[in-house]
Design a protein that fits this description.
By secondary structure, the chain is of the alpha+beta class. Helix content is 53%, strand content 8%. The chain has two domains: 135 residues, Beta Polymerase, domain 2; 111 residues, Four Helix Bundle (Hemerythrin (Met), subunit A).
Length: 261
C-alpha cells in the first residue's frame, strides 16, 4: 500500500510543495516522502511537517552532506517556509535525508533499544510519496514489506523480550535503595521494550512506542482488549511506595501472556 499525503492547512500544503519542488530537481533524490501525521491523514493545523528525502543507493555520504547544506542555505530565507514557521509556536519542519539502509543492531540488555522497526515503519511502510514513488523506494517496499525475514524476526523477538525481562527484574533493586524515580524510569523503558516485543510478535511495524499507542494497538494490532491493560501500568499515584512493584507485576503478566501466544 502507498499512502497519499494529506495536509491540514493550505500553508502546510504550500510548504510541502516547496520541499517537493526543491528536492525533485536534485538528480540524487529518488523519492520525497511525507512521514508521520501528514502521511497518515491524522494531522491537525498545529502538526509538524515531517519529511524523509530518500536518495538513490549510489549516493555517497559526502553528496548527502552537500545536499543537506544546500537545503539549509536555501530554506533559511525562503518566504513560504518562514511564513509556515511563524504560523504557530509549534510549527516545525523536520527533514531527514535517508539512504534506505536499515541495519539491525545487537540489542544488549540494560541499554536503550534501537529504532530499526520504527524507521522502516515510518520511512517505508507508512510514508506518503509526494508525486510518484521512485524505483528505489519501490525496491525497498518489496524488500521490507509486509515484514522482514523470519530468522531475523525470531532473533529480535528473543532479544527484546530478554531486555524487557531484565529491566523488570532490575526495578526492585532500585526500589529497595529508595531510588523511586530511577525505578519509574526503568519501568517506562521496560514498557517500551514490551511494545517493541509486541509489534515484532505480531509482524507489524510501529510508528512509535511513546505516542499513538491506543491507535496502533487497537487499529493495527487489532487488540482492543489489550489497550485498557496498558495505560494503568504507567499510572502511579504515589511514586515513593510499593506501587511500582505492582506495575512491574502487571507488565510481566502481559509479557508472559505474549510469550504463550
Amino acid at each position: 500500500m502507498i499512502y497519499k499525503p494529506s495536509f491540514p492547512t493550505i500553508l502546510h500544503q504550500d510548504t510541502a510543495e516547496l520541499v517537493r519542488d526543491y528536492f525533485l530537481t536534485i538528480s540524487n533524490v529518488d523519492t520525497v516522502l511525507v512521514v508521520n501525521s501528514c502521511a497518515r491523514g491524522q494531522a491537525v493545523p498545529e502538526s509538524d511537517l515531517d519529511f524523509a528525502i530518500l536518495v538513490k543507493p549510489e549516493t555517497t555520504r559526502t553528496e548527502i552532506e552537500n545536499i543537506e547544506t544546500a537545503w539549509l542555505n536555501y530554506s533559511v530565507n525562503q518566504t513560504t517556509f518562514l511564513k509556515y514557521k511563524k504560523s504557530n509556536q509549534f510549527a516545525h519542519l523536520h527533514l531527514d535525508i535517508i539512504d534506505g539502509n536499515y541495519t539491525p543492531t545487537i540489542l544488549e540488555i540494560g541499554v536503550a533499544s534501537d529504532f530499526f522497526e520504527i524507521e522502516i515503519g515510518n520511512h517505508i511502510c507508512y510514508s506518503a510519496p509526494m508525486d510518484n514513488a521512485g524505483l528505489y523506494f519501490k525496491e525497498l517496499q518489496k524488500k521490507w514489506l509486509p515484514y522482514y525475514n523470519e530468522e531475523l524476526r525470531l532473533q529480535r523477538l528473543t532479544m527484546t523480550r530478554n531486555a524487557c525481562e531484565y529491566d523488570l527484574n532490575h526495578i526492585s533493586f532500585f526500589i529497595t535503595r529508595g531510588l523511586y524515580f530511577q525505578a519509574f524510569d526503568i519501568l517506562c523503558k521496560a514498557f517500551q521494550e514490551y511494545l517493541q516485543t509486541l509489534f515484532i510478535a505480531n509482524k507489524t511495524y510501529p510508528i512509535a512506542y511513546n505516542k499513538w499507542i491506543k491507535y496502533q494497538v487497537i487499529n493495527w494490532l487489532n487488540k482492543p482488549d489489550l489497550y485498557p491493560k496498558l495505560s494503568p501500568i504507567l499510572s502511579v499515584s504515589n511514586i515513593e511506595s510499593n506501587e511500582i512493584n505492582d506495575k512491574v507485576k502487571m507488565l510481566r503478566e502481559l509479557l508472559n501472556d505474549l510469550t504463550i501466544e
